[in-house]
Design a protein that fits this description.
By secondary structure, this protein is mainly α. The protein contains four helices and no strands. Component of the F(0) channel, it forms part of the peripheral stalk, linking F(1) to F(0). The b'-subunit is a diverged and duplicated form of b found in plants and photosynthetic bacteria.
Length: about 190
């Protein structure tokens, strides 16, 4: 079919030009010579089977392009599968990160509450210890004041008794104390 179309186009395009002189079928006419050369060229191309070779090369090229398209389509589908997988993994990782952040917030809040409770307990213990120290210091101060008052009272009583007592009364008291101690010890 291609051969017939090529021959029809060749004969249709080979009209004699106005510049040629003489009868058309003579070797002196340049148009006839060019027309014969063209027919010879086309005949050689057909004899060597150039159109079938060109067709075969075009078919091979078409097959190569089709295989590249098929490979590109397969690669695209694989890339879409991988992309979907990565998007799914990204979503899972994002959800896991959100859970970790929420857990960290909860842990931090619980730790803050525990620290606050521990601080309140520590402050209460320190206040109780301070109150105990204050009470102990107050009791020690009262005891010191009493002891000092007793010491002063004894000293004052000693002076009063010493001034009012005579030597014979003192000797009687000493003898009575010795007898009392002797009775209590034996």
């Amino acid at each position: 079919m291609r051969t017939i179309i090529a021959l029809a186009l060749t004969f249709g395009a080979a009209n004699p030009a106005l510049a040629a002189s003489g009868p058309f079928f003579s070797m002196a006419n340049t148009n006839f010579v060019v027309w014969l050369a063209f027919l010879l060229f086309v005949g050689i191309l057909l004899l060597v089977k150039v159109p079938s070779m060109l067709g075969g090369q075009l078919d091979n090229r078409a097959k190569g392009i089709q295989s590249e398209l098929d490979e590109a389509r397969a690669l695209r589908e694989e890339a879409q599968t991988v992309l979907a997988s990565y998007e799914r993994k990204h979503k899972e990782v994002q959800e896991q990160a959100d859970r970790i952040v929420a857990a960290a917030r909860d842990d931090a809040s619980a730790a803050a509450d525990q620290a606050k409770a521990d601080l309140e307990t520590s402050i209460a213990r320190r206040l109780a210890a301070a109150e105990d120290q204050i009470t102990s210091a107050k009791d020690a101060a009262v005891k010191d004041v009493r002891d000092q008052a007793i010491t002063i009272a004894i000293a004052a009583a000693d002076q009063v008794i010493a001034k009012q007592m005579t030597a014979t009364e003192a000797n009687k008291l000493i003898d009575a104390a010795i007898t009392d101690v002797d009775a209590k010890l034996h």
